[in-house]
Structures are given as structure tokens and as C-alpha cells.
Amino acid sequence: LPTPTKENYCFVGWYEDKELKNLCTGRISETTTLYAKWISKSYTATPETAISVMENIYSQLQYENSKYVVIDDFVDFKIEGILDKEMLAAFAKTISKIKEESFYDENENEWKNEYRPILKIKLDLAKVEGLTDIKEDSFKDCLNIIEIKLSQGVSSINNNAFSGCENLSSVEIPASLTHIGDSAFERCVSLCSIVIPDGVNFVGESAFANCSELTSIKLPDSVLTIGSSAFKECKKLTNVTLPKWIEILPSSIFSNCSVLKSISIPNAVENIEDNAFFGCIALESIVIPENVITL
User: pLDDT, tens digit, for every residue of 125-137?
Assistant: First the structure.
């Protein structure tokens, strides 16, 4: 069946009745009237209504009790108003819970026993107020989020906040941010680049580990502490700028960054810990500053 398009709408599927209750899932062998179902491509909600609006979107994708139509498209979802970290975490759980546990891959002609999102979401929090930090584990393993904009005033992205968000490709971080927690973006395998603003002073352990599409990273001079394994297994990382006041390159910070060819180590560095460059097989040369005490 053809896939129609309609400006500002996402196509859900073809239905056999005007009430859009019976999804057409089989082949058509005779002349049949089918009805297209659509959902809006753009939503704006308050913190109080965000969960109910999202649940209503999902209800429109549901058929045969526990089955859902998978939309190969995205919706823009904006939240405006006073929002705290607990409300955001509850909303994130609502986003995350609707997903397929297995599906038939038509390209490979086989069933896959793995999760895939029902709907992809670009989440805009730029106009919320009162949000100062992203609670730990808030969006952990959320496959639905592909983009997120954080509001000015957010100072901390806590441990595992976006860990395992495998489809997250874009993050807009406010200038107010100072802290990126442990594993905050670990396993965000679609993240190609990220701008870390001047003012961030802490990047935690494994903060960007296994971000396999990340090609470059620039840490501002405000960063004073970097955790171990911060960029471990970033296998496409080619361009790195380190903060000039950093004194320690922690263990495994660039371990298995296999295409990293060169890096400039700041003169302030005194300690380069174990396995900092383990598995960096493309590294052609490196200059060790005279201030380095342990290596």
C-alpha cells in the first residue's frame, strides 16, 4: 500500500472503517475502500498535561489491545511552564515505556528480539522554568528521543541521565550547565557531536563512553575534572580539544578510540594514568609536556 504525506501530520496507517478502529494489516486482493489515519506532527503541553498528552498520542497508535503501529517519523513535543526534575523524570518514563519488544525486519526477512521505538520525538524544553538539573536515570535507555533542547537554568545533567538513548542525535545544552555526571551520555550511539559550554567544570566517569558516532569533542577551559573512561570506545573520535588547566588525564579516558591520530596534551597535565590511550592504534605521535610526573 502507498504511504501518503500530509503537511504537519504523521501517517499512522490504513484502516478498514471510517471510525479508524480496524487497522488493515493484510494484503488487498479486491477493490476495497480504506481510510488514512493521521496524528499531528507538533504538540505543546504544560508540565501538568504533558503525560496525558503523550499517553493520548500513544493511544492513537494502539490497535488490538497491546499492539502499536510503528511510525517511521518524528513529532515535535514542546513543554512550557514551571517544571521540576521529578515531573520531567515521570514524563520521561511515559515516553520510554511504549516500545516493541520484537519485530519483523523486512530488510533482513527475520524476526528481531530487540526493542525499537513506536514513535521518535524531538523534545523541546527551552521554555520551561524552574528546572535546575536532570535527575539521574531520567531518560536512561529511552529509545524514542532523537533530539532534546534543555532550558537555561539547568546546571547539572546527573548520572545516567541519557545513558543508552541510542537514537539521540542532537542535544542543545544551556550556558548555565556546570556538571555532566557519570555515564550521562554513555551509549548514545547516534550522537555525532555535542557543544559543551564554557562554565562546565566537571565531566564524570564514562560520560561519553561508547558514543560510537562521536567524531569531535571540545572541552572548555573551565573543565577542571574529567572522570576515567570519559571517552572510552568512541571509535570515530578524530578531533579532541582538552582544557588547558586540566592536571590529570584519567585512566582509560581515550581507551580504544581507534581512529584518533593526534592530540595536544595541555602543559598543566602532571599525571597520565593507566590505559589513557590504550587501543589508540591510529595515534601517530604525542608530545608529553615537561610537567608530567607520572605516566
Answer: 999 999 999 999 9
